[in-house]
Specification:
Phosphatase 2c, domain 1, six-stranded antiparallel sheet, alpha+beta, 11 strands, five-stranded antiparallel sheet
Protein backbone atom coordinates (compact mmCIF):
# COMPACT_ATOMS: atom_id res chain seq x y z
CA UNK A 1 0.00 0.00 0.00
CA UNK A 2 1.31 3.44 -0.89
CA UNK A 3 2.41 5.61 2.04
CA UNK A 4 1.52 8.79 0.15
CA UNK A 5 -1.82 10.44 0.98
CA UNK A 6 -4.62 9.20 -1.23
CA UNK A 7 -7.74 10.90 -2.52
CA UNK A 8 -10.83 9.61 -4.30
CA UNK A 9 -12.60 10.90 -7.37
CA UNK A 10 -15.92 9.59 -8.65
CA UNK A 11 -18.55 9.69 -11.37
CA UNK A 12 -21.82 7.87 -11.97
CA UNK A 13 -24.39 7.04 -14.61
CA UNK A 14 -27.82 5.44 -14.64
CA UNK A 15 -30.43 4.47 -17.23
CA UNK A 16 -33.76 2.65 -17.08
CA UNK A 17 -32.57 0.26 -19.80
CA UNK A 18 -34.39 -0.74 -22.98
CA UNK A 19 -37.11 -2.96 -21.50
CA UNK A 20 -38.25 -1.41 -18.21
CA UNK A 21 -40.74 1.50 -18.15
CA UNK A 22 -39.19 3.11 -15.05
CA UNK A 23 -35.86 3.20 -13.22
CA UNK A 24 -35.99 1.60 -9.76
CA UNK A 25 -32.24 2.03 -9.23
CA UNK A 26 -30.90 4.87 -7.12
CA UNK A 27 -27.42 6.12 -6.39
CA UNK A 28 -25.65 8.86 -4.51
CA UNK A 29 -22.19 9.83 -3.41
CA UNK A 30 -20.29 12.48 -1.52
CA UNK A 31 -16.55 12.66 -2.12
CA UNK A 32 -16.30 15.11 0.78
CA UNK A 33 -17.82 12.64 3.24
CA UNK A 34 -16.39 9.47 1.68
CA UNK A 35 -19.62 7.66 0.86
CA UNK A 36 -20.71 6.06 -2.42
CA UNK A 37 -23.85 3.92 -2.72
CA UNK A 38 -25.91 2.11 -5.37
CA UNK A 39 -29.31 0.54 -4.69
CA UNK A 40 -31.63 -1.57 -6.85
CA UNK A 41 -35.23 -1.41 -5.63
CA UNK A 42 -37.94 -4.03 -5.88
CA UNK A 43 -41.68 -4.00 -5.33
CA UNK A 44 -44.91 -3.28 -7.17
CA UNK A 45 -45.99 0.09 -8.54
CA UNK A 46 -43.46 2.72 -7.44
CA UNK A 47 -42.37 0.76 -4.35
CA UNK A 48 -38.95 -0.18 -5.73
CA UNK A 49 -38.12 3.43 -6.52
CA UNK A 50 -39.18 4.50 -3.03
CA UNK A 51 -37.14 1.78 -1.31
CA UNK A 52 -33.94 2.47 -3.23
CA UNK A 53 -34.23 6.24 -2.82
CA UNK A 54 -34.87 5.90 0.92
CA UNK A 55 -31.77 3.75 1.33
CA UNK A 56 -29.52 6.13 -0.60
CA UNK A 57 -30.87 9.19 1.22
CA UNK A 58 -30.36 7.60 4.66
CA UNK A 59 -26.80 6.51 3.84
CA UNK A 60 -25.76 9.90 2.52
CA UNK A 61 -27.48 11.80 5.35
CA UNK A 62 -26.01 9.76 8.19
CA UNK A 63 -22.53 9.46 6.70
CA UNK A 64 -22.49 13.21 6.06
CA UNK A 65 -23.28 13.84 9.74
CA UNK A 66 -20.49 11.56 10.98
CA UNK A 67 -18.18 13.12 13.55
CA UNK A 68 -15.57 11.07 15.41
CA UNK A 69 -17.26 7.65 15.39
CA UNK A 70 -15.44 4.79 13.65
CA UNK A 71 -16.21 4.69 9.93
CA UNK A 72 -17.51 1.13 9.83
CA UNK A 73 -19.78 1.64 12.83
CA UNK A 74 -21.45 4.68 11.30
CA UNK A 75 -21.87 2.97 7.93
CA UNK A 76 -23.42 -0.15 9.47
CA UNK A 77 -25.73 1.99 11.60
CA UNK A 78 -26.73 3.92 8.48
CA UNK A 79 -27.63 0.70 6.66
CA UNK A 80 -29.69 -0.47 9.63
CA UNK A 81 -31.46 2.90 9.75
CA UNK A 82 -32.19 2.61 6.04
CA UNK A 83 -33.56 -0.88 6.59
CA UNK A 84 -35.82 0.37 9.39
CA UNK A 85 -37.04 3.33 7.33
CA UNK A 86 -38.00 1.11 4.38
CA UNK A 87 -39.60 -1.58 6.53
CA UNK A 88 -41.61 0.96 8.54
CA UNK A 89 -42.79 2.72 5.39
CA UNK A 90 -43.91 -0.58 3.85
CA UNK A 91 -45.89 -1.45 6.99
CA UNK A 92 -47.88 1.79 6.73
CA UNK A 93 -49.06 1.29 3.15
CA UNK A 94 -50.60 -1.76 1.51
CA UNK A 95 -49.29 -0.55 -1.86
CA UNK A 96 -45.73 -0.62 -0.54
CA UNK A 97 -45.98 -3.93 1.33
CA UNK A 98 -42.95 -6.13 0.74
CA UNK A 99 -40.83 -3.46 -0.93
CA UNK A 100 -37.08 -3.67 -0.55
CA UNK A 101 -33.77 -2.86 -2.16
CA UNK A 102 -30.28 -4.17 -2.62
CA UNK A 103 -27.38 -1.97 -1.51
CA UNK A 104 -23.69 -1.79 -2.26
CA UNK A 105 -21.63 0.96 -0.67
CA UNK A 106 -18.04 2.09 -0.46
CA UNK A 107 -17.07 4.24 2.51
CA UNK A 108 -13.69 5.81 3.11
CA UNK A 109 -11.75 8.23 5.26
CA UNK A 110 -8.05 9.06 5.58
CA UNK A 111 -7.25 5.76 7.24
CA UNK A 112 -9.79 3.22 6.02
CA UNK A 113 -11.75 2.04 3.01
CA UNK A 114 -14.40 -0.64 3.18
CA UNK A 115 -17.13 -2.06 0.99
CA UNK A 116 -20.53 -3.19 2.27
CA UNK A 117 -23.36 -4.99 0.52
CA UNK A 118 -26.80 -6.50 0.92
CA UNK A 119 -28.29 -8.34 -2.07
CA UNK A 120 -26.81 -8.77 -5.55
CA UNK A 121 -25.58 -5.30 -6.43
CA UNK A 122 -21.82 -5.62 -6.71
CA UNK A 123 -18.48 -3.97 -6.13
CA UNK A 124 -15.45 -4.74 -8.27
CA UNK A 125 -11.87 -3.52 -7.98
CA UNK A 126 -9.60 -3.06 -10.98
CA UNK A 127 -5.95 -3.12 -9.92
CA UNK A 128 -3.04 -3.24 -12.37
CA UNK A 129 -5.31 -4.53 -15.12
CA UNK A 130 -6.87 -7.30 -13.03
CA UNK A 131 -10.58 -7.20 -12.16
CA UNK A 132 -11.70 -8.71 -8.87
CA UNK A 133 -15.26 -9.02 -7.57
CA UNK A 134 -15.13 -7.78 -3.99
CA UNK A 135 -18.68 -8.57 -2.89
CA UNK A 136 -20.58 -11.85 -2.76
CA UNK A 137 -24.09 -11.94 -4.22
CA UNK A 138 -26.91 -12.73 -1.82
CA UNK A 139 -28.89 -14.59 -4.46
CA UNK A 140 -30.28 -18.09 -4.64
CA UNK A 141 -28.28 -19.17 -7.68
CA UNK A 142 -24.97 -17.64 -6.56
CA UNK A 143 -25.28 -19.35 -3.19
CA UNK A 144 -25.88 -22.64 -5.04
CA UNK A 145 -22.75 -21.97 -7.13
CA UNK A 146 -20.66 -21.33 -4.00
CA UNK A 147 -21.90 -24.63 -2.51
CA UNK A 148 -20.99 -26.49 -5.70
CA UNK A 149 -24.59 -27.38 -6.55
CA UNK A 150 -24.73 -25.30 -9.72
CA UNK A 151 -22.21 -24.16 -12.32
CA UNK A 152 -21.84 -20.47 -13.21
CA UNK A 153 -23.29 -21.20 -16.67
CA UNK A 154 -26.30 -22.94 -15.10
CA UNK A 155 -26.77 -19.96 -12.80
CA UNK A 156 -26.87 -17.59 -15.76
CA UNK A 157 -29.62 -19.65 -17.43
CA UNK A 158 -31.61 -20.45 -14.30
CA UNK A 159 -35.21 -19.15 -14.08
CA UNK A 160 -34.44 -18.47 -10.39
CA UNK A 161 -31.55 -16.09 -11.05
CA UNK A 162 -33.63 -13.07 -10.01
CA UNK A 163 -34.32 -14.49 -6.54
CA UNK A 164 -32.28 -12.65 -3.92
CA UNK A 165 -31.89 -14.00 -0.41
CA UNK A 166 -31.16 -10.78 1.42
CA UNK A 167 -32.45 -7.22 0.95
CA UNK A 168 -33.02 -4.00 2.87
CA UNK A 169 -36.54 -3.40 4.11
CA UNK A 170 -38.09 -6.84 3.82
CA UNK A 171 -37.37 -7.77 7.45
CA UNK A 172 -36.95 -5.81 10.70
CA UNK A 173 -33.22 -6.60 10.79
CA UNK A 174 -30.67 -7.05 8.04
CA UNK A 175 -27.19 -8.58 7.95
CA UNK A 176 -24.58 -6.63 6.00
CA UNK A 177 -21.38 -8.08 4.54
CA UNK A 178 -18.30 -5.92 5.20
CA UNK A 179 -15.04 -6.08 3.24
CA UNK A 180 -12.03 -4.17 4.57
CA UNK A 181 -9.83 -2.89 1.75
CA UNK A 182 -6.26 -1.61 1.48
CA UNK A 183 -6.45 0.98 -1.32
CA UNK A 184 -3.55 1.74 -3.61
CA UNK A 185 -3.08 4.65 -5.98
CA UNK A 186 -4.51 3.63 -9.36
CA UNK A 187 -7.22 1.37 -7.97
CA UNK A 188 -10.58 1.74 -9.71
CA UNK A 189 -13.71 0.58 -7.89
CA UNK A 190 -16.97 -0.15 -9.70
CA UNK A 191 -20.25 -0.19 -7.77
CA UNK A 192 -23.18 -1.37 -9.88
CA UNK A 193 -26.66 -2.84 -10.04
CA UNK A 194 -27.21 -6.20 -11.70
CA UNK A 195 -28.52 -4.50 -14.80
CA UNK A 196 -24.86 -3.97 -15.71
CA UNK A 197 -23.46 -7.36 -14.72
CA UNK A 198 -26.29 -9.37 -16.29
CA UNK A 199 -25.37 -7.91 -19.67
CA UNK A 200 -21.57 -7.69 -19.49
CA UNK A 201 -19.10 -10.42 -18.55
CA UNK A 202 -16.13 -9.80 -16.27
CA UNK A 203 -13.89 -9.84 -19.35
CA UNK A 204 -16.02 -7.21 -21.07
CA UNK A 205 -16.05 -5.09 -17.91
CA UNK A 206 -12.27 -5.31 -17.69
CA UNK A 207 -11.79 -4.25 -21.30
CA UNK A 208 -14.12 -1.29 -20.86
CA UNK A 209 -12.60 -0.18 -17.54
CA UNK A 210 -9.11 -0.21 -19.06
CA UNK A 211 -10.11 2.46 -21.58
CA UNK A 212 -8.35 5.77 -21.10
CA UNK A 213 -11.41 7.95 -20.51
CA UNK A 214 -12.45 10.47 -17.85
CA UNK A 215 -14.59 8.83 -15.18
CA UNK A 216 -17.82 10.57 -16.20
CA UNK A 217 -17.35 9.46 -19.79
CA UNK A 218 -16.33 5.95 -18.73
CA UNK A 219 -19.43 5.48 -16.56
CA UNK A 220 -21.56 6.45 -19.55
CA UNK A 221 -19.63 4.01 -21.72
CA UNK A 222 -20.45 1.15 -19.32
CA UNK A 223 -24.16 1.96 -19.30
CA UNK A 224 -24.24 2.29 -23.09
CA UNK A 225 -22.52 -1.08 -23.49
CA UNK A 226 -25.07 -2.77 -21.20
CA UNK A 227 -27.90 -1.22 -23.19
CA UNK A 228 -26.34 -2.34 -26.44
CA UNK A 229 -26.05 -5.88 -25.06
CA UNK A 230 -29.78 -5.97 -24.33
CA UNK A 231 -30.63 -3.47 -21.59
CA UNK A 232 -33.09 -5.87 -19.98
CA UNK A 233 -32.98 -4.11 -16.59
CA UNK A 234 -32.20 -0.75 -15.04
CA UNK A 235 -28.47 -0.01 -15.23
CA UNK A 236 -26.50 2.01 -12.67
CA UNK A 237 -22.83 2.37 -11.89
CA UNK A 238 -20.50 4.50 -9.79
CA UNK A 239 -16.78 4.58 -10.54
CA UNK A 240 -14.40 5.53 -7.73
CA UNK A 241 -10.72 6.07 -8.52
CA UNK A 242 -7.95 6.18 -5.92
CA UNK A 243 -5.33 8.81 -6.69
CA UNK A 244 -2.23 10.16 -4.97
CA UNK A 245 -2.64 13.66 -3.59
CA UNK A 246 -0.75 16.07 -5.92
CA UNK A 247 2.50 17.31 -4.43
CA UNK A 248 2.64 14.58 -1.79
Amino acid sequence: MSSAPLQLTAAAATHRGRKRPTNEDAFGFSVEHGVYVVCDGMGGAAAGEIASSLAVDEMIRLMSNRTTQPLNDVALDAIQCANTAIHSRSQRSAKLSGMGTTLVALVADDAHLCVMNVGDSRCYRLRQGELEQVTLDHSLVEEQVRMGNMTPDEALRSPLRNVITRALGTQREVTTDVFEMQPEAGDLFLLCSDGLTRELSDLQLTQLLLQDEPLDQLSGTLVAAANKAGGHDNITCILVRVETVPGS
